[in-house]
## 1
Amino acid sequence: MKIALDAMGGDTAPETTVAGAVRAARELPVEVVLVGRRDAIERSLASYPKRPKNLSLVHATEVIGMDESPVASIRKKRDSSINVGLGLLKEKQVDAFVSAGNTGAVMSASMLLVGLLSGIERPGIAILLPGVKGDTLLIDVGANIDPRPIHLLQYALMGEAYARCVLGTSRPTVGLLNVGAEESKGTDFMKETYGLLEGSGVNFVGNVEGHDIFTGEYSVIVCDGFAGNVALKTAESLAHAIKALLRRSLAMSPITRLGAWLARDAFLQLRKEIDYAEHGGAPLLGVDGISIIAHGASSAKAIKNALRVAYESVRHELNKNMVDAIQLHSQHVKSA
Amino acid sequence: MKIALDAMGGDTAPETTVAGAVRAARELPVEVVLVGRRDAIERSLASYPKRPKNLSLVHATEVIGMDESPVASIRKKRDSSINVGLGLLKEKQVDAFVSAGNTGAVMSASMLLVGLLSGIERPGIAILLPGVKGDTLLIDVGANIDPRPIHLLQYALMGEAYARCVLGTSRPTVGLLNVGAEESKGTDFMKETYGLLEGSGVNFVGNVEGHDIFTGEYSVIVCDGFAGNVALKTAESLAHAIKALLRRSLAMSPITRLGAWLARDAFLQLRKEIDYAEHGGAPLLGVDGISIIAHGASSAKAIKNALRVAYESVRHELNKNMVDAIQLHSQHVKSA
């Protein structure tokens, strides 16, 4: 298996991406293909005396910046690491592509260069969130901010397949993110989506609310990309705020500082549980090839885990399973 | 000043509401009017040997349940504590109304029985959220899940007036909750709202994102009620999850348990900083009378603080200031 990594993507590329690639190459039975400027990548690789054999390099002369306009930049910079990496995916020279670069550019290039799976109209970004009782896959967190109900149905089918095949959940539950639990709640858009999900054959549990996201009660929660993006970023913001406020209050006296020091293993444990880096990248579901988006601020560990998500998705034939789910649904609808 | 409290509203009414009313009557220079079933209120009051003199009672025979249909229940139960309390507000027998009951019913009854301020088309629920650098007023968190751009402009004007008059912020900043900072981001709805806010005369700082909600960087953030509701409930969910996970990890060994015990003052401090109960109720801005919505799970302290929010709103002539802001804006638009 070969996985292309956008070596130039992310706030501290290529140092961090190369570090993540080296780790992944050591831990996973895959070949990691670093895509980007040869000289810059070689410089970063020079700090690893024993370069893993399953690490290769494909040169790409251009870099798309984090703030560049997605569609314009992928049209203009044909030889960017994102375009070249996704070109390798399109030509099936690699099995998956991972990038911590410009999310919009990765998304647009994935759609334009690689295309979508049969039966899928719009891709969705799925993110695995930690919860008290387990993880929840939230889809979509921003690929499609003005979706139609049919798109959310497709997210449900794809998310369900992801939870079943990649995460190993035996019978995943699917909820619809809304402002109340009753069927009558929400906008007309939500009511129509509810009806589609109800007749879809997925294990639909009805409307869920923002306060159901971090309980781990549901395997998959589907939402429009606007609400999903707001929810995800709000959660990140609150986690940061709690961390900052807790740090400030733990420093209030010598006693609390001693307490914090004694309890440090507990804080490390918590950090491990809620740290996005542990969960790796967010799959862009619906693309005709595995395309994984990592956080721009990804650490080497987060990059490694994003490569692991790509590896698991390929290994479990995610896209084949998603297409099967879509086809099964079409037959289900026809026979109904 | 007289403030009516829905004694029957909330998960543990009337015990908790009465306890909150007693506290408020002792701390604030107001008369608290308990509205609800006389016998039930009297039973709860019996546990306070010295009943404050500034506590009175208005009988209402019916109670609207937390899960009842809002519009149907306020039409059917004319003698409910919500209808009777808002009737007192309408007739100006009280200066404000506070309820921890059925949010939808309070909202509908406020609109139908009391009416809206001149120039306001839809009310918005505003909630004060704690942040690292200070508090942020988020409006709307669910009164209006399918708003028009003009409604968000009105939220901005009202929120700005609230921050200035009630919270004492000298020149409040106003942001628009969106999925990216650039002006071109978001749906057509968002772009139109952006244009309205830009020409409105409020101190508009542009688009903000979910991760700006808990920084305290902005005084007021306006949003559609759907996204606001999802953001608020997601934040509640994450706070609960972090609390549960931290408690679990702090219990992992005798050392971490000792550490947690030594650091307990720090945890209490954090709890105080992020606890909704400290901030009290959420004003329903735009109603022609002060109407405050409290969380259904409000503690006695939260009820007291909701009564304090009502008191501060009346004392600072919130509604007069909001109407002035709306009129000033109309002149601003005409002269432009």
## 2
Amino acid sequence: MASAEPPVHRKARHYRWDGVAVVPYKEDAQALFKSITRQVLFADPHQGSELRYFEVAPGGFSSLERHEHTHNVLILRGFGHCLVGREVREVATHDLIAVPPMTWHQFRATGEEPLGFLCMVNAARDKPQLPTLEELAEFEQSPRITDFLKGVR
Amino acid sequence: MASAEPPVHRKARHYRWDGVAVVPYKEDAQALFKSITRQVLFADPHQGSELRYFEVAPGGFSSLERHEHTHNVLILRGFGHCLVGREVREVATHDLIAVPPMTWHQFRATGEEPLGFLCMVNAARDKPQLPTLEELAEFEQSPRITDFLKGVR
């Protein structure tokens, strides 16, 4: 485990960090997402959770998904909307969002600057599930959620 | 565990959050610290780690301590200095600091505004150890650390 020890200090430079790679959001080719990057800030083998930074360009969004593991989110920059369960919420810098187990969620950058957020997650976690066509059709029964999914603020 | 489920969305208002109490930094009457508060942002029973926000007023400092558990820190606001091991480092907004196991550390707000930082920590963790007089004397062999401990930038 000693080889995985992170450096003690990593400087930040406009939402990038020394020694932290900016990587694709995810590898799942089935998931629908747009204009989003991922940086792993802490994956400390001594801790149960990891901390990642995601950045969504204006108009972009994370995938609509659910899973058994939870997300603990702090908005680090910008403004946007998120869907958690069947609720659409406006989120701004430093707001906290907790995504409970098996709850559909998506983040969208609906402002004019990027939406950047920290996301704490268990190191050991299950694979996200994507909605079926039937589940998507169910969301579309709600005009508020339909607007959200179309990117209408 | 369901009763401990956090609210989905908590708004931020200038480094305070809806429903999050601002509490004393710590209860240990032996520890030397100054002008620092604590807010627990996430203590999700589904996750291995918690996320806390500490804020140190100008001139204030956290206790000088070490423990087996690690700290994963992201500076949320302001500027300061930290001691990690025998290194004094200047830290600024969004910098990352990883405190390894059993490593002496302290944070000081050496700028003109508060130093605020997020600290991720295992939910199950050991109690911090404070330095003995002999250990303090050893730090004072280093002029850089002596200046740091006196609050000299």
